[in-house]
Amino acid sequence: MQYATGKHEIQVLDDSDDGTRDIVDQVAQRLSAEGVDVRVVRRSSREGYKAGALSHGLQSARGEYVAVFDADFVPPVDFLQKAVPLLEAKPDLACLQGRWSHLNREESWLTEAQALGIDGHFAIEQGARAWNGLMMNFNGTAGVWRKAAIEDPKVGGWSCDTLTEDLDLSYRAQLAGWTLDYCLDLASPAELPGTIAALKSQQRRWATGSIQVARKLLPRIWRARLPLAQKLEATLHLTHYTVALWMLVLALAARPMLLVYADVRWFAGWLWIVWIVILFSALAPSFIYAYARYRLEGRWSGLRTIASMLILGCGMCWNNSVAVIRGWFHRGGEFVRTPKSGSDTGETKVSSYRLAQNRMWIVELGLGIYCMTAFIVYVQQDHRAFSVFLLLYAIGFLLIGWLSRPRRQVQPASGTAVEMPPSFSSKEVSPAESAGGGECCVGAPPG
To answer: What are the catalytic residues?
Structure first.
């Protein structure tokens, strides 16, 4: 970090219990010998997971500001030089969120699809919220907090009663009178999940956590003296993962709708309206994601990725629906980190960290067969335009289910980057949100 000597410190919040501890200690000792103010902060337990680690580190952090990075992020050396003046200029600014960019976007179709979705979040959604006075969120990493805002008694500090502590703290700070802002030009690259299993783990945490925050804070938001536009947008923001449930309902209802269409004349006219709404809801986000890439790169390179992103979204809706339901009925939960492999190029690497297997892939394959059957029926009955959606669902479910099936574990080759342990995980997307029980925090006093 290019910042004034003596004006910033680095905490490595490490909850790991394996060989990573030795790696962390060796790097910290080397950097310390070079004059860097860095120290490793460890706890006796992983209580509270990431929120607990951040709260523990904050107790000894000396700076007025705290920059938070998940372990797979590689912030630019001038990150603090750009961020701190923006916070200094606004005394009521609790947090400045930067943009995520990508280390391994070209690794596979999966990482390309994720990258496009994340670009849409950061190039369109976050800016729209911040610059229109709407409530927004800290994405768990690549942002800087004002320490006084976190410690404000009206805010209440980091909390571990949801799986998205970043989203929770962001909204509590805004309800307490603080503001959040976003800087599009403050970009930090990070690694995207390279496997379906890793992506599912990330999405489950984000979906469950966002619904938990909705349950916790929406009553407060609607009681607060806020403009109606802020309340409505906050409601859509906190519950947006419920779209997975509606997507699943649509996939399951397609075949019965056709039966009703054949038996009830008046329903035919209404069915056209339903499909027009569905068509718009598919095309509008696609345009947004394509425009996001144009906004960032000056070209429409995202258009070629739209199809794979739609297929991925359809295929993930069962995984995310289960997570949404869990969020409505469960408080807190285990913070399951997102496995990363250390990939920073187009080369595929293997993570040594393994997630527990489940049987959701069987349901996904079953849903894929069901949607493919419905697709064939729609084509046979000359509903070809509508059948396209069912084909997307069929391909998505079959692909995600097949890639999620149990397979023989392949040991990483010699020299392959090894996945960091629990405290060194990645963000759980928002886009954009974070995995793991530990972070790297850079405290930066002004000046």
So the answer is: 15, 166
